[in-house]
């Protein structure tokens, strides 16, 4: 059901690692689905979390870090967690993707500073143009029905 809610249950999903390809463009989900056919093999960076523990907060998030140079690859990160809100899980995933990109680009930073401070330094460098996250969370049903959340980045050729 989580894959249906995400709009990707009708595809054969192949999990891939976390590279945002050079020249890749982000398009809205409804437009992207127009390029795909049911049963097609689709490459995804996907995060999911499941639980049947009553009232448990679960979250899945994809962080994105896009370099200013469109010929350079960026990063997608997957993060899944228990007990984290959308904001906390999303911030963590976004920070993870941005940190991976910053280290690839050779940007210096203090890992002990807050995400907000690092984000400002990286964006001011002119080498990282955009970071964001896609996050889904849920509270497990009080009777303990299995609950799953999914966040995904679908790569369309």
From TrEMBL:
What reaction does this catalyse? L-arginine + H(+) = agmatine + CO2
- Keywords, ordered alphabetically: Decarboxylase, Lyase, Pyruvate
Which cofactors is this protein said to need? Answer: pyruvate
Quote the EC number: 4.1.1.19
For this protein, the record's InterPro entries field holds: Pyr-dep_his/arg-deCO2ase (IPR016104), Pyr-dep_his/arg-deCO2ase_sand (IPR016105), Pyruvoyl-dep_arg_deCO2ase (IPR002724)
- The protein's enzyme class: lyase
Query: Family, per the entry?
Result: Belongs to the pyruvoyl-dependent arginine decarboxylase family.
The protein in question is named Pyruvoyl-dependent arginine decarboxylase AaxB
Name the species this protein comes from.
Kryptobacter tengchongensis
């Amino acid at each position: 059901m989580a894959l249906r809610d995400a709009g990707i249950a009708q595809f054969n999903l192949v999990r891939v690692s976390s590279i945002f390809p050079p020249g890749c463009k982000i398009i809205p989900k409804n437009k992207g689905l127009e390029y795909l056919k049911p049963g097609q093999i689709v490459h995804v960076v996907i995060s999911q979390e499941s639980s049947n523990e009553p009232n448990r907060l679960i979250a899945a998030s994809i962080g994105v870090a896009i370099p200013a140079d469109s010929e350079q690859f960026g990063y997608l990160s997957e993060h899944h967690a228990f007990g984290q809100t959308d904001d906390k899980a999303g911030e963590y995933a976004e920070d993870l993707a941005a940190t991976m990109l910053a280290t690839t680009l050779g940007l210096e930073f203090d890992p002990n500073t807050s995400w907000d401070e690092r984000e400002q330094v990286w964006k001011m460098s002119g080498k990282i143009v955009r970071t964001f996250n896609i996050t889904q969370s849920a509270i497990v049903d009080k009777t303990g029905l299995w609950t799953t959340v999914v966040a995904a980045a679908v790569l369309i050729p």
